[in-house]
């Protein structure tokens, strides 16, 4: 790259002065202004931007909550209630933060589901997908540790059960557990380190999100048809088309968020977490937060301790190799009649696991969990690899513009730079 | 485009609907009796008179065993009590303070800024005085029990003789709404146990409803502000959604 | 993000500009309204504002002695002044002082001076409470941080501090007891 001032196109002299020396405005214009984006996104493509906004909300409310929270076993519960009662708008901050975690998982689950349905994980977007899985794992760790901080009964016993999972590993298990606890049980050292890490990890997530977006802007976005744009007639500049569309989706998301925060702030929580932690009394029925229930159901579906733990971790780790398990050249499930059914069944299995995870570990839920768990893994390890060889996909459209524009749009070979068909 | 939006929200709705309700988790289902409160629904608010009576019930009955260590006397101002009334209520109790210049703890009359005085110095003392059962702190009790205020009301009114064939352990009482039905707390409310200044008859049902209202307020003092703000914000967002959709339509008009 | 739709209009008709303007204004109001709870949350919480007042027993303080008590996280100087100290404080014509105030306006009972023990310069705690402390050139307090001298009425006499030591709100609840706050 040539040394010297950047050749800036910016009009405003101040902006231009900065841009010549540090071309961030040129970069923003390129990546978020004129960035060529497939013209056929549906509203499922809003959820990446929503997740980004949600992350910002969590960090902002979290920083302000941390100004009032006290990470000590004798004070944590009371300091949270003090936030709820005495701190100006403290109840708002806390309910936004607590329900923001749920919103984050709803948004990210839909984002992941969209990636799986439309084959966004396939070449050349494997790394983009894997970075996304890393973000999801970091999110889970952050959410788990955040739930411990109010130091209620579910905080304490959730932390005890989850950290004890690691004891299933042979040889190093107990060593890992005491490393997590910093003592002989979940206690003050645990709470302190969880608070420290809960504050740190979101910024790590920001870093990985940045990499996720860098990778996205190299390959470009996938789209509902799963075929690559073949020219300018297949794309639109990100701004104003997708900024406007994302903004609309964002407001709808805020409405859902506001209904939760203002009218059902404890609907997704558990009453037991308003009982201060008591190491001597286990609640009758320990359940994790709703977004962990599918994995909890997988854990309980396996009658063996180590097997359950391995399968639980494996249920997400398998996502890492998804691009190599599914060898079908066709991305979008729209053109894969068999895989489409198999995937929708997988979605049902996931929701069934979510349901069973919240039920007591008794029949019929154990058997149902086992069937759903078996299908969960069979989809990735058996059905997708087989369908990649056996399935006959439907014919793909010639191009995005041919498929989505009324009147068919120009042929890919056509020279039309910008289709002008009116809706 | 709306079809896909609907699909997206169907997914959200499905996720929410699939969530097990925490109340249903306890195994054998207990159905609470129907009871209506002033704070029910989206626009409900606290009936101040009822909550004040509920405070009186708490002070004269529950406070003998149950602490509310997160509530301060000054908070009672929110129930409509005057500054003088709050100061008078606070000064009726002795609060431990100190150490003084000699290093001794001492007792002084309560002030509005003090937390409610707890009946026992610690949990062990509370257990020792209550047949080894811990009377739970009531500060956030309606948030800490499935069913909330309705559960409190049910519990207060749910004492009866055990049905035939059920034996109740020594020192326990039968309550049809308590999980497991055997509760250490003896029936706390008896008719005319308190004298309400406003002439409300002190029936068990009235007292139970009032104390449930008071405890709901204690657990969620922000409820009225929260809902009021929520209505405004959702109205604002609805208008903004309409505008944002119009802008989006205009911009996309030439792209279809 | 919501405002961004307003920036470009490839076929800008007046109606679209107006629509964009209204939407952008709405979004700006929304963003502004979001900022307020965050800022407000950093102001003192209600329990802090309701902090208890502090009672001070005066009987044990001998003439010429002083005690320091805490009130709202700040030191309060309570000094039992000698006759000579009172006279010294009252002999000075207030007009000559950097921050003119009569001694009478700063005490409720002549022998008891109650001031907030925070130097009005940059918030250090002045010396002069213990008998062994330096009391500055005017027999009151001396702030070691930047050399402010206060007199026996807590008034600034020399040095960089701009104002006299503040007098907190207090009242005598009996002859030998005060309540600060």
From TrEMBL, chain A:
<feature type="transmembrane region" description="Helical">
    <location>
        <begin position="248"/>
        <end position="268"/>
    </location>
</feature>
<protein>
    <recommendedName>
        <fullName>Cytochrome b</fullName>
    </recommendedName>
</protein>
<comment type="similarity">
    <text>Belongs to the cytochrome b family.</text>
</comment>
<feature type="transmembrane region" description="Helical">
    <location>
        <begin position="43"/>
        <end position="70"/>
    </location>
</feature>
<keyword id="KW-1133">Transmembrane helix</keyword>
<dbReference type="Pfam" id="PF00033">
    <property type="entry name" value="Cytochrome_B"/>
</dbReference>
<keyword id="KW-0408">Iron</keyword>
<keyword id="KW-0349">Heme</keyword>
<feature type="binding site" description="axial binding residue">
    <location>
        <position position="97"/>
    </location>
    <ligand>
        <name>heme b b562</name>
    </ligand>
</feature>
<keyword id="KW-0249">Electron transport</keyword>
<feature type="transmembrane region" description="Helical">
    <location>
        <begin position="156"/>
        <end position="177"/>
    </location>
</feature>
<dbReference type="GO" id="GO:0046872">
    <property type="term" value="F:metal ion binding"/>
</dbReference>
<feature type="transmembrane region" description="Helical">
    <location>
        <begin position="91"/>
        <end position="112"/>
    </location>
</feature>
<feature type="transmembrane region" description="Helical">
    <location>
        <begin position="306"/>
        <end position="325"/>
    </location>
</feature>
<feature type="domain" description="Cytochrome b/b6 N-terminal region profile">
    <location>
        <begin position="14"/>
        <end position="225"/>
    </location>
</feature>
Automatic annotation (TrEMBL), chain B:
<keyword id="KW-0813">Transport</keyword>
<feature type="binding site" description="covalent">
    <location>
        <position position="185"/>
    </location>
    <ligand>
        <name>heme c</name>
    </ligand>
</feature>
<keyword id="KW-0472">Membrane</keyword>
<dbReference type="GO" id="GO:0009055">
    <property type="term" value="F:electron transfer activity"/>
</dbReference>
<keyword id="KW-0249">Electron transport</keyword>
<feature type="binding site" description="covalent">
    <location>
        <position position="62"/>
    </location>
    <ligand>
        <name>heme c</name>
    </ligand>
</feature>
<dbReference type="GO" id="GO:0046872">
    <property type="term" value="F:metal ion binding"/>
</dbReference>
<dbReference type="GO" id="GO:0016020">
    <property type="term" value="C:membrane"/>
</dbReference>
<keyword id="KW-0679">Respiratory chain</keyword>
<keyword id="KW-0408">Iron</keyword>
<dbReference type="InterPro" id="IPR009056">
    <property type="entry name" value="Cyt_c-like_dom"/>
</dbReference>
<keyword id="KW-0349">Heme</keyword>
<feature type="binding site" description="covalent">
    <location>
        <position position="66"/>
    </location>
    <ligand>
        <name>heme c</name>
    </ligand>
</feature>
<feature type="transmembrane region" description="Helical">
    <location>
        <begin position="229"/>
        <end position="247"/>
    </location>
</feature>
<dbReference type="InterPro" id="IPR036909">
    <property type="entry name" value="Cyt_c-like_dom_sf"/>
</dbReference>
UniProtKB/TrEMBL annotation, chain C:
<keyword id="KW-1015">Disulfide bond</keyword>
<dbReference type="Pfam" id="PF10399">
    <property type="entry name" value="UCR_Fe-S_N"/>
</dbReference>
<dbReference type="InterPro" id="IPR019546">
    <property type="entry name" value="TAT_signal_bac_arc"/>
</dbReference>
<dbReference type="InterPro" id="IPR006311">
    <property type="entry name" value="TAT_signal"/>
</dbReference>
<keyword id="KW-1003">Cell membrane</keyword>
<dbReference type="InterPro" id="IPR014349">
    <property type="entry name" value="Rieske_Fe-S_prot"/>
</dbReference>
<keyword id="KW-0472">Membrane</keyword>
<dbReference type="InterPro" id="IPR036922">
    <property type="entry name" value="Rieske_2Fe-2S_sf"/>
</dbReference>
<feature type="domain" description="Rieske">
    <location>
        <begin position="83"/>
        <end position="179"/>
    </location>
</feature>
<keyword id="KW-1133">Transmembrane helix</keyword>
<keyword id="KW-0001">2Fe-2S</keyword>
<dbReference type="InterPro" id="IPR005805">
    <property type="entry name" value="Rieske_Fe-S_prot_C"/>
</dbReference>
<comment type="subunit">
    <text>The main subunits of complex b-c1 are: cytochrome b, cytochrome c1 and the Rieske protein.</text>
</comment>
<dbReference type="InterPro" id="IPR006317">
    <property type="entry name" value="Ubiquinol_cyt_c_Rdtase_Fe-S-su"/>
</dbReference>
<protein>
    <recommendedName>
        <fullName>Ubiquinol-cytochrome c reductase iron-sulfur subunit</fullName>
        <ecNumber>7.1.1.8</ecNumber>
    </recommendedName>
</protein>
């Amino acid at each position: 790259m040539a040394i010297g001032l950047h050749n800036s196109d910016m009009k405003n002299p101040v902006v231009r002065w900065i841009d010549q020396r540090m071309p961030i405005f040129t970069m923003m214009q390129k990546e978020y202004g004129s960035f060529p984006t497939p013209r056929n996104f549906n509203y499922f493509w809003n959820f990446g931007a929503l997740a980004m906004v949600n992350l910002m909300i969590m960090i902002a409310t979290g920083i302000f909550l941390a100004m009032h929270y006290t990470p000590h076993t004798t004070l944590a519960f009371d300091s949270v209630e003090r936030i709820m009662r005495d701190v100006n708008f403290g109840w708002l901050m806390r309910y936004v933060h607590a329900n923001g975690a749920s919103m984050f998982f709803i948004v990210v689950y839909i984002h992941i589901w969209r990636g799986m349905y439309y084959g966004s994980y396939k070449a050349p977007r494997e790394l983009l997908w894997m970075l996304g899985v890393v973000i999801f794992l970091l999110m889970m760790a952050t959410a788990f540790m955040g739930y411990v901080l109010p130091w209620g009964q579910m905080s304490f016993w959730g932390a005890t059960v989850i950290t004890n999972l690691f004891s299933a590993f042979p040889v190093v298990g107990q060593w890992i557990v005491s490393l997590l606890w910093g003592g002989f049980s979940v206690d003050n050292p645990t709470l302190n380190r969880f608070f420290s890490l809960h504050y740190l990890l979101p910024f790590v997530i920001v870093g990985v999100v940045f990499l996720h977006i860098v990778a996205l802007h190299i390959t470009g976005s996938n789209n509902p048809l799963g075929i690559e744009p073949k020219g300018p007639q297949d794309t639109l500049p990100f701004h104003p088309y997708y900024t406007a569309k994302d903004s609309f989706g964002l407001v709808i998301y805020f409405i859902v968020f506001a209904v939760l925060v203002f009218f059902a702030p404890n609907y997704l929580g558990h009453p037991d977490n308003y009982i201060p932690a008591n190491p001597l009394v286990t609640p009758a029925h320990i359940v994790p937060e709703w977004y962990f229930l599918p994995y909890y159901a997988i854990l309980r579906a396996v009658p063996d301790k180590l097997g359950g733990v391995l399968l639980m971790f494996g249920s997400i780790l398998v996502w890492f190799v998804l691009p190599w398990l599914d060898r079908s050249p066709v991305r979008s499930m729209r053109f894969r009649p068999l895989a489409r059914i198999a995937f929708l069944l997988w979605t049902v299995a996931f929701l069934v696991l979510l349901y069973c995870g919240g039920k007591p570990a008794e029949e019929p839920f154990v058997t149902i969990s086992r069937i759903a768990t078996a299908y969960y893994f069979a989809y990735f390890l058996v059905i997708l690899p087989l369908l990649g060889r056996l399935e006959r996909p439907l014919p793909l459209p010639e191009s995005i513009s041919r498929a989505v524009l009324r009147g068919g749009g120009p042929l890919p070979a056509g020279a039309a730079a910008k289709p002008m068909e009116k809706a | 485009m709306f079809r896909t939006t609907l699909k997206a929200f169907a997914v959200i709705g499905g996720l929410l609907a699939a969530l097990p309700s925490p109340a249903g988790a306890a195994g054998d289902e207990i159905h609470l009796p129907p009871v209506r409160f002033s704070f029910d629904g989206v626009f409900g608010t606290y009936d101040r008179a009822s909550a004040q009576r509920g405070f009186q019930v708490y002070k004269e009955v529950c406070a003998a065993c149950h602490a509310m260590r997160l509530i301060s006397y000054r908070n009672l101002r929110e129930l409509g009590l005057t500054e003088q009334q709050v100061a008078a209520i606070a000064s009726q109790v002795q609060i431990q303070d100190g150490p003084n210049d000699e290093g001794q703890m001492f007792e002084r009359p309560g002030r509005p800024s003090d937390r409610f005085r707890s009946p026992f110095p610690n949990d062990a003392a509370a257990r020792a005085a209550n047949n080894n059962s811990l009377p739970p702190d009531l500060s956030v009790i309606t948030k800490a029990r499935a069913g909330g205020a309705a559960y409190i009301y049910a519990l207060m009114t749910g004492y009866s003789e055990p049905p035939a064939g059920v034996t109740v352990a020594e020192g326990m009482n039968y309550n049809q709404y308590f999980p497991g039905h055997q509760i250490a707390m003896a029936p706390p409310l008896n008719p005319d146990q308190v004298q309400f200044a406003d002439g409300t008859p002190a029936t068990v049902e009235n007292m139970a409803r009032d104390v449930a209202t008071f405890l709901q307020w204690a657990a969620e003092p922000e409820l009225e502000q929260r809902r009021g703000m929520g209505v405004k914000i959702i109205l604002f967002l609805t208008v903004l959604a309409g505008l944002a959709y119009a802008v989006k339509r205009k911009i996309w008009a030439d792209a279809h | 993000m919501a405002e961004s739709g307003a920036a470009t209009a490839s076929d800008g008709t007046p109606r679209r500009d107006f629509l964009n303007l209204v939407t952008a204004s709405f979004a700006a109001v929304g963003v502004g309204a979001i900022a307020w709870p965050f800022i407000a949350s950093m102001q003192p919480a209600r329990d802090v504002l309701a902090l208890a007042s502090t009672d001070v027993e005066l009987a044990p303080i001998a003439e010429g002695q002083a005690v320091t008590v805490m009130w709202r996280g700040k030191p309060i100087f309570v000094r039992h002044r000698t006759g000579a100290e009172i006279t010294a404080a009252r002999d000075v014509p207030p007009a000559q002082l950097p921050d003119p105030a009569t001694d009478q306006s700063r005490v409720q009972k002549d022998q008891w001076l109650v001031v907030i023990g925070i130097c009005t310069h940059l918030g250090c705690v002045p010396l002069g409470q213990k008998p062994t402390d330096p009391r500055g050139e005017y027999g009151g307090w001396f702030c070691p941080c930047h050399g402010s001298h206060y007199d026996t009425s807590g008034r600034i006499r020399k040095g960089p501090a701009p104002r006299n030591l503040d007098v907190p709100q207090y009242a005598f609840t009996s002859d030998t007891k005060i309540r600060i706050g």
